[in-house]
């Protein structure tokens, strides 16, 4: 009879543009192995991380690892661990040093978790409502997560995405009904290494006699990329888009539905969702290796992942050519203001 630790790590991840998740099975020798995962967002009122432990089963038992995972005591540490973030900052030309501020995590129970690999509907998590600082033009910040378990210390360092340099630069988008070329969507990347995904969304409304106003949109992704594999122009990064893309999508959405309907342009919104490069590496490497021989983690003294995410949005204008082509398509679009 041989005891084995079966560890399932459920990684959560936001793209819009959407979220991604990867289930990774890891097998390690029997010991108490902390498992930490969390994705912090500086815009959240409450940031939550999960701190659990490896749970053990027996090859001769009549139940398997999935059954054990459904038992809260198999994953939870009893009581509350000492978990806190230590704040560091550095000015230009200096090294990081502690600010003296510590963010101490408390525990709470989530009561509406859907059934899945782990126990439900109640789930114990660690959280804080305190504000995390991000980089500005003069000072950079990072945080060290420290978890004390008996005589062991588990740690992880992270710089949060969402500094003031992370901005959408393009003030306008350019589309044509036909014979379009390629255009650039410019932005300044975050100071911390990240993966970016861009989404464009055209918002409009439909009015029909005797019916309620219906708000609609078409949206699409320009793909994803890191700071280092995107195009560079004037010290900015850019994604490319085709000038006919908006009209192709509207043609599919509207089709021949142009009888007795008026359509009004509402807004055009560009969104850039960014998440930490360490999360990308964790997902990609663990998916490729199944996490058995090797796994990616930035948790020192444990397993899992701690990362950051942030989304920025900007309402941009459309070129006069775009507006003219919209009015000429006989889709029922009425006057569109020109800036």
Task: Report on this structure.
With about 350 residues, the protein is mainly β. The protein is built from five helices and 21 strands. A hairpin with a 2-residue loop joins strand 10 and strand 11. Residues about 1-30 have low confidence and may be disordered. It is elongated and about 70 Å long. Helices cover about 10% and strands about 50% of the residues. The longest helix is centred in the C-terminal third of the chain and has 13 residues, at about 275-290. Strands 8-9-4-3-20-19-15-16 form an eight-stranded mixed sheet.
Broad structural category? mainly beta
Mean pLDDT: 84
The helix/strand series, from N terminus to C terminus, equals EEEEEHHEEEEEEEEEEEEEHEHEEH
The radius of gyration computed from the alpha-carbon positions, rounded to a whole number of angstroms, is 25 Å
Estimate the helix proportion, in percent: 10-25%
Main β-sheet description: 8 strands, mixed
Sheet with the most strands: spatial strand order: 8-9-4-3-20-19-15-16
Task: Compute the number of strand runs.
Answer: 21
Percent in strands? over 45%
Uncertain residue segments: 1-30
Note the total helix count: 5
Q: Kindly, what is the distance between the CA atoms of the first and last residues, rounded to a whole number of angstroms?
A: 76 Å
Rough outline? elongated
